[in-house]
Amino acid sequence: MAGMVRGAPSRADLQVIRELAARELVVTASQLESWRRAGLLPRHRRRGLGRGRGTVVDAVDPVVVESAAALARHLRQGRDRRLAVLEWFAEAGMPPVRPGAVPVPEPPIGAVREALLWALEGSFSQRLWDTAHSAVGAGEAGLDELYRVAGLMLAARPYRGAMANPALMRAALEAGEDLPEETGTGADFARVVHLVAAIGAGAEEIGADALAEAFAVWDMFGLTVEDWKQMLGAAERGEGPPVDWDLLRQHADVLGPVRRAGDEELVRARAVLLGLRGFYGMYVLHGLVMPDTPAQAALRQRIDEWGMFPFLSHAFSFSPSPVQFAESLSVCLEPLFDGLYEALMEQLARDPDIFRLPGDETGPVGFGERWMRALREVSAEGSAGHSRTDDPDKRS
What we know:
The protein is mostly helical. It folds into three domains: 2-79, no CATH class; 124-166 and 175-252, no CATH class; 261-372, no CATH class. It has 21 helices and two strands. The chain has a two-stranded antiparallel ribbon. Helix 5 (81-92) packs across helix 6 (109-121).
């Protein structure tokens, strides 16, 4: 093999290089061998020719070609391979883009786990957790340092906020009014640092009111700041169920779940993540005047029953970076998200006609046409409204 690396590439590797070149993916024989040494690319399957006659590659395995294609798509000069592995893992969980297309093969699961842990160790979530953990036993000075460092982290990574309620967005668009603002941005989200501090230093150091503001940022289960204040205040006074801060510490640890998860659990968490992102996206598109159907309404109702749309909006991104993908996947190892995914999949199986309007025999085609018309109408109404506002003779 060493001789092959120093000399001309094998016929099998030349075939791989040609097939990828036809897709405008440029790779070299040395790159292919480098990926093999890193454990990312399978070797060609060889057949023995008999005693003393060596071996031969009968045909290039499509898995080798598609694995090399995935690496070529996601790797570029100077980029860490682990980022490419995470993108490859996410891509392998998606259905083929074209009917009959060869599915993207799975990357080696050991390389996936290594990439996940590496990404999470340097993630925003883990750095915040490490800072909170270091505050334990450090008294007021430790808390001051925690708030200082957390503030710098939040300033360096501005939070976009949760998506505004799609029903309100839809109503505003259809009425030609200004869109509602996102929720939980800026200073509001900075209140989450109170929760981080409580996990690190103890709830008694923070107080029920500050913690109530932190919990309310997530807007889960429809609970307001006042609702959280009542519950946490009662727990603080011993008049209600105590808060299990050890359980919260476990949930705050993004590395532990990945370390403990088996190979199948990681693949399952990816299915949950990609599935929930799809359901969340459909909910968001309702706000962009996508034609409504009974199947869509039933899915939104399920999400609302779980009180999870605001949290999905905080947790998921439509175009996540590899590190954000790793953070979201760690979250999806939790039973709560697995349960929500199962509930939504069961609902979808009961009524799969999400893109078929009742009584419309044109099916998804008619659905798409109606949506395009709705968007044009909204755009025209919005333009007309702005024109009226900008006309000084027509202002009130």
